Amino acid sequence: MTTFLALLRGINVGGHNKIKMADLKQLCESIGLKNVETYIQSGNVLFETDQDECSLQTRIEEEIRNVFGFSVTVVLRTGKELLQVANHCPFTAAEIKSAEATAQGECLHVAFLLKQPTAEEIELLRPYENDAEQYQIIGREVYLLYHDSIRHAKLGSQLHKLGSPATIRNWKTVLKLASMIEARDLR
User: Fold this and answer.
1) Which of 33, 79, 82, 116 could form a disulfide with 3 if both were Cys (CB 3.0 to 4.6 A apart)?
2) Beta-carbon contacts of residue 62 (< 8 Å; ≥ 6 apart)
3) What is residue 13's DSSP assignment?
4) pTM higher than 0.85, yes or no?
């Protein structure tokens, strides 16, 4: 069995696409996922399965559409992949500390993409980077560092230029999910 993390895009935001985490857990269990655990209302689900990523993503998205009546994008990562994300932040401690000094709210976020962007797609994002909004792309993740606020940032709203749906989590959430995965490995 492989540990997976499902990151649902755009649920429970501004009163739209509401899904209770207990209902989401039940849905995941109903399609045969094991040891299902949710974290906060933004749609983070840990589970174990023998299914492959592609068919799993399709199955979860179809089931959400059938049960809840709306479509959401589900981005999957194995537990090992999420631990890599948490353990390999490309920004230095000094860069993060500098951003924390001026940021309104969380300064470090990770955008999880469905697919790795091409060099041409990455070039389309470059004009939106500046001293207040920086990014680093590693594989299917975009690390975002804000010196002001993600709410006013132009960079995050341009991620669609990377040619893939994305869902964003703040760094505290990424670290919490990593600790939940590590706790599973200790069982």
Assistant:
1) 79
2) none
3) B
4) yes
Strands of the sheet containing 44-49, edge to edge, are 34-39, 44-49, 2-8, 74-78
Q: Which amino acid is at 128?
A: Y
Angle in degrees, CA 81, 85, 86, rounded to 5: 120
Quick: pLDDT tens for 24-50: 999 999 999 999 999 988 889 999 999
| Residue 137 CB contacts under 8 Å (≥ 6 apart), including other chains | 117, 122, 143, 162
Q: Mean pLDDT score of the chain, rounded to an integer? A: 92
State the DSSP string of 116-162: PPPHHHHHHHGGG-BTTEEEEEETTEEEEEESS-GGG-SSGGGGGGG
Work out the burial of residue 106: count CB atoms within 10 Å of its CB; fewer than 13 is exposed, 13-18 middle, 19 or more buried: middle
**Backbone phi and psi for residue 168, each to the nearest 5 degrees, phi listed first:** -110, 140
Q: How far apart are CA 107 and CA 109, in angstroms?
A: 7
Asked if 80 and 117 count as a contact pair (C-beta separation under 8 A), the reply is: no
| Inter-residue contact 4 to 46 (CB < 8 Å) | yes
